[in-house]
Amino acid sequence: MSIRTLVLILAPPLAGVLIGYLAGGRLAGFRTIRLTGLWLLWLAALVQAAQYYLPAVREFVEDRLGVPMLVVVFAPVLIWLALNLPRWPVAIRIAGAVIALGAALNGLVIALNGRMPYAPAMAEAAGLRPGVTTPKNEPADAATRLPFLGDTIPVPPLRKVVSPGDVLISGGSCAVVVLVMRRHRREQPTAPPTRTGGEP
Question: Which of 10, 78, 120, 148 has its CA 20 to 30 A from that of 110?
């Protein structure tokens, strides 16, 4: 996994932490919500790493099983959200649903095409060499299904192209962190009123 990809993954939750502190929240807010099945997120991270570093695993899953690796990455994330969304407050549930929608859109376009398609012109605008096929991406062409859901948004500072689904996942992740951190402020006990000296 490249540094640029890592930045894209970590930037939204870190931005959420910064905004959460500016809004008066604290990380202790995470103690106020119940999280189940965190091992599913670790599983998704392991599959994502295998996609980059273990070609044999990728070839077995994609060639023999016929399942795109990124679909295998998104599946445990969606299961984790399904387990946890009903337990969360409404605002956090909505932000989580945005993440789920983004993951579903990415999974759909990958399932239809085998890899995440990208717009060659947008890749060139981001400073990348267009027309290159990787284990994760392939250039969109006339046969590509739902190309508008692929990587069509250039991010020149990081030399990356992202999809609408990526934008939803990033925005939802940031919002979840902010909303959870703000719960710390609401959960604080209210101090009792101070009595004056003349009262019994």
Answer: 10
Check whether 7 has a pLDDT greater than 80: yes
Residue 200, in any domain of the structure: no
Q: Is 60 exceeded by the pLDDT of residue 69? A: yes
Q: Which tokens belong to 194? A: 């101070």
CA nearest 12: which of 194, 173, 144? 173
- Structure tokens of 196? 């004056």
In a domain, 159, yes or no: yes
State how far the Cα of 197 lies from the Cα of 200, in Å rounded to an integer.
8
Q: Distance between alpha carbon 160 and the CA centroid of its chain, in Å? A: 16
What is the number of structural domains in the chain? 1
Q: Is residue 102 part of a domain?
A: yes
Tens of pLDDT, residues 78-94? 898 889 989 899 999 99
CA distance 106 to 196: 62
Cα 34 to chain centroid, rounded: 19
Note down the domain range covering 147. Answer: 3-185
In a domain, residue 199? The reply is: no
Please list, in sequence order, all residues whose beta carbon lies within 8 angstroms of the beta carbon of residue 179, skipping any fewer than 6 positions away.
89, 91, 92, 95
